[in-house]
Write a structure and sequence with these properties.
Low-confidence stretches: none
Shape: elongated
Mean pLDDT: 76
CATH topology of the largest domain: Four Helix Bundle (Hemerythrin (Met), subunit A)
Number of domains: 2
Order of helices and strands: HHHHHHHH
Distance between the termini: 118 Å
Strand content: under 5%
Number of helices: 8
Number of strands: 0
Largest sheet: none
């Protein structure tokens, strides 16, 4: 039986590149999101072929199943006109159908094919107790610990910068100080004024 692994891997790589280009050149934001879903799903298929099932499942569940669906939901809900949304469904249906068909074909090629055997890092058949998740952890925290920590520091700096940009005080912005609200007393808000009673002029 001919080994089709290089051919399938090359086909997946071409689909990944084409979908990435589609994300960039697509003028319609919904089409761009669908192309990005296809790119993530194809990347997960490549991870499966490289026998990194944990990364593939994480990519599908986190990005395809959550982040991209959220992006698509936000893009579709920007237009609150229900009639135009219904019209947009059929307008976007061909692209969505093509993306779904490609994803189904990739899933069938990866899951049901017998061309991919379980091999270890040395190219030999891996034992039944082999865990690529454990191997991934060992690689991250031994051989690639410094790049991993550097990526963590960069992400931390990005989070702090985003918070600083969001919470910076501007002259034209109105905000409420919660500590000042907690310290407020009734005497500071209500003042009782004694006024003489009015006399009847008659």
């Amino acid at each position: 039986m001919t080994d089709l692994t290089p051919l399938v891997f090359s086909a997946f790589g071409l689909v990944l590149l084409a979908s990435a280009v589609g994300v960039i050149v697509a003028r319609n934001p919904v089409h761009a999101v669908l192309f990005l879903v296809l790119a993530f799903f194809t990347g997960a298929g490549l991870w499966m072929m490289l026998e990194a099932e944990f990364l593939a499942i994480t990519l599908v569940l986190v990005y395809v199943g959550a982040v991209m669906v959220l992006f698509l939901f936000v893009v579709m809900m920007l237009n609150v006109d229900l009639d135009r949304l219904r019209e947009g469904f059929w307008k976007y249906f061909p692209v969505g159908a093509v993306v779904a068909l490609i994803m189904v074909v990739e899933m069938v090629l990866v899951v049901s094919s017998r061309q991919f055997s379980t091999l270890g890092l040395d190219g030999l058949p891996a034992p039944a107790s082999y865990s690529n998740t454990r191997e991934l952890g060992l690689q991250l925290y031994t051989n690639y610990v410094y790049p991993f920590e550097l990526a963590a520091v960069i992400l931390l700096v990005a989070i702090v910068a985003a918070i600083a940009l969001t919470l910076r005080k501007r002259k034209d912005s109105r905000y409420v100080d919660p500590s000042a609200q907690v310290r407020v007393k009734a005497a500071d808000r209500i003042r009782v004024v004694s006024m003489p009673a009015e006399k009847d002029p008659s």
